[in-house]
Amino acid sequence: MQTVTLNNGVKMPILGFGVFQVPPEETEQAVTDALAAGYRLLDTAALYHNEEAVGRAIKNSGIPREELFVTTKLWIQNAPAEENTKQAFDASLRKLGLDYVDLYLMHQPYGDVYGQWRAMESLHREGRAKAIGVSNFYPDRVLDLVLNNEITPAVNQIEAHPFFQRTADHKLLRERGIQLQSWGGFAEGKNNLFTDPLLSEIGRQHGKSVAQVVVRWFIQRDIGTIPKSVRPERMAENIDVFDFQLTDEQMASIAALDTGATLFFDHRDPQWVDRLGVLRMDA
Prior knowledge:
The protein is of the alpha/beta class and 283 residues long. The chain is 41% helix and 13% strand. The protein contains eleven helices and ten strands. The protein has helices spanning 24-37, 51-61, 81-96, 113-125, 139-147, 167-175, 197-206, 210-220, 232-239, 248-255, 270-276; strands at 3-5, 11-13, 17-18, 41-43, 69-74, 103-106, 132-135, 155-159, 179-183, 224-225. An eight-stranded parallel β-sheet has the order 3-4-5-6-7-8-9-10. The chain has a two-stranded antiparallel ribbon with strand order 1-2.
């Protein structure tokens, strides 16, 4: 598996398996199948309510812990944020059945971001989070965090797909040594992604599916991605992307699909801030 080296020297698989919206009762089998297909990066979150199932699959896999890269995410914490962040982290570790995670992300750019980040820095220094980062942070929020804290986030996991390519964001993150990792890489099929004429034709030229073309496009841009599926054949297809190369012309043609707009929601939209910013969950 190809890896990227994060700004603290940690190596992260460029391609992983995400479990967002996988029901808890289906997650253990999905992760088991993903591991059998060759995935070694697993991405979950406290908010997904399936950390325990991910942990069971890891435990029963027989795969040495050091061969896995496990990410989970911190949900928004009430004050005192530093104390509550550590409690939330402990709860995630307990559910996962692990002694550490490879990457701990702040899930949303809301609440006491600085208090949460200070706690995450502490967890990183203790070695219980090998790397720390953020999710859903727009460039201004990322830069503010970088300028006013000791540790620069290793990763920013954001919406990115052929219709919202985040080119300027990617440039800024690279300049700051922050790895871009995509969520929603297939745009959840919006804009008829899986039947898009351009992507379909590129796939035909390589004997690959549209999904494989998209994953390959991410990899050639040095962007991490975490496609989700509960179907073993799709898992196997999505990871079978290291035996072909998109041409410069094909990469340029895909770049023309960019609309520059989210297909989901803008984290700077006051309505969404009001909706997500007050959402809390039990540990």
